[in-house]
Amino acid sequence: MQDSIPAALSAASTPTPAAHGLTSLTVERIDDMAGLTALRPEWQALLQGNEADCLFLTWEWLSCWWRYISQRRRLCLLTVRRGGELLAIAPFAIRPPEPGRLVPFRTLEFMGMGDVGSDYMDLIIRPDLEEPALEAVAAYLKQHSLVLDFRRVDAGSRRITGLLTLLGKDGWESEQQVTDSCPYIPLKGHDWKSYIATVSRAHRANVNRRLRRLGEIFKQVEFKRATTEEERREYFTQFLRLHQLRWSGKERSNAFTGEGTLAFHSEFSQVALERGWLRLFVLRLDGEPVASTYSFRYGDAFYYYQAGLDPKLAEHSVGLATLGLAVQSAIKEGVSRYDLLHGNLGYKALWTDATRPVSRIYCYPPNAGGALYRQVQGLRRGLKRVMHWPAVRMEASA
Asked: Domain coordinates of the chain in residue numbers?
């Protein structure tokens, strides 16, 4: 049975008033896989070289997400056109109510949410027409009055800020909080020697010593990237095994255990290989796979997504060595940024002190539903504080 959606939100398109001397713009909602598939060439052309351009906003990443991880969400991807020309994409989806989590209402969010860990979510807009395109998207959202829950968005996005400002003029209230930071290594102009000189003396000495010692202890040290489909399948299987070993006996990683996530990565890694984006490395010592990184090269950036290692080789710091070798590979490719993505894991701070924040934003329409949702959010936050208070109190008195 189809979820209940406001009638206007189900409309194929909505014309908006002329803005800034432009002819009338049209906002269209794409709500099925056929429409998403048909948009592929235009999406790729609009994203290429755009300020928002990143791996997690590609058609390939988000269409794969929609097939495997969207779960009970409804597609609500908005396009803005002038005549037949595509000016903007707002890659949205509608998340259904979750009464068990005290979320009794539908919300509008970005595609790509859930266990895949998409970062830097944003609107994709032709740069010379940002203002009228944002006005068109804002006008559409005002008609339909769904609460916006934007997670993992680029905290510095001019487009997100502009959209919130336009909604705020009509009484929408927003809350924004930086929820995480994405450490990254600036590599422009660096070779390995000049980069490693930028980290602490202790870390530099440790990395160089570990890399040197591997060559002294083992007869064969091989760090190789999958470049064929046969290698991708082999290396991906090895990576999954090493990733599971890395987390055995610890807090479990949910990176590949959620519903549909393994199928997502199996397909996306194949697509990424075809597109030249996949950077799936395996470190072998005397022929034995001991560590692996699942990464991507997209545009001018290298994304370090997940890693795995055999704890039996922990004394040789194979995880540290593998990351060092991956950074060396990125430098050789000439990328300007090695992005470690979100997650405040201590080892990331050893490699860089540069970070890029991501935020969560709630934006409430000026109606009874928006006010009630905001009250529920306050209740949820209060319950979380109460639930954590005893643990905090115990730590303070210890």
From this structure: 7-181+357-397, 188-335
**CATH top-level class for 7-181+357-397?**
alpha beta
Beta strands (DSSP E) in 146-219 are 147-154, 173-186
Contact 273, 232 (CB under 8 A): yes
CA dihedral 55, 56, 57, 60 (to 10 degrees): 80
Closest to 223 (Cα-Cα) out of 319, 341, 347: 319
> Coil, strand, or helix at residue 283?
strand
Between CA 173 and CA 164 the distance in angstroms is 8
The per-residue pLDDT for range 304-337, each reduced to its tens digit, is 999 999 999 989 999 999 999 999 999 999 999 9
- Angstrom distances, CA of residue 326 to CA of 110, 275, 332, 352: 30, 20, 10, 15
Q: Torsion angle, CA of 52/58/59/62, rounded to 10 degrees?
A: -100
pLDDT at 161 over 90: yes
Q: Band of the pLDDT at 128, cuts 50, 70, 90?
A: very high
Residue 123's Cβ-side half-sphere holds a number of Cα atoms within 13 Å equal to: 27
Residue 143 burial (10 A CB sphere; 0-12, 13-18, 19+): middle
Tell whether pTM > 0.70.
yes
What token pair was written down for 354? 């540069």
CA-wise closest residue to 161 among 361, 394, 377, 386 = 361
Which pairing describes strands 337-339 and 173-186: parallel, antiparallel, or unpaired? antiparallel
* Encoded tokens for 122: 């944003």
Written out in words, the top-level CATH class of the domain with range 188-335 is alpha beta
The closest alpha carbon to 211, from 334, 328, 337, belongs to: 328
